[in-house]
Amino acid sequence: MNSKISWKNPGPGRRIRQLALRLSACFFLASAGLAAQPLNKSFFGNKAVHGYDPVSYFKGRPTPGNKDISLEWKGAVWLFSTRENLAEFRAKPEAFMPQYGGYCAFAMAKGYLADIDPLSWRIVNGKLYLNYDADIQKEWEEDRSAMIQSGDANFSKLQGR
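Now predict its structure.
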């Protein structure tokens, strides 16, 4: 028997997760203040990507960053696992910055903000997309191009473009 729970008919656990996503979206919308460039940062420490090295994703393996190898950029602290990754980021930060300011790609496609699990990720056409968790990542992957198109449109609205 296939026990896959669909987004359209969620079970009790899925409903709770959806509610948590929506509640976190309200919190993040309020706290982000809808700035011109919203950026998902940890509440404590102001870290981007939950302290993971953004360059490491493009090398195929997300790696926690080192607090001694860091850079402040766009109001957040970015941590790196190596000095080489720091140098690459410093040379072209926009190339390594996660899409949607590091917020959940699935949530952005649905029109709200949510936090991410730094281990739920995908590089698509040279861009880093992060998601809330592995289950949400699977949902996002099911119709990835439509999700990206919708996420791009919603993020542009969020930025006031």
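The chain has one domain: 35-158.
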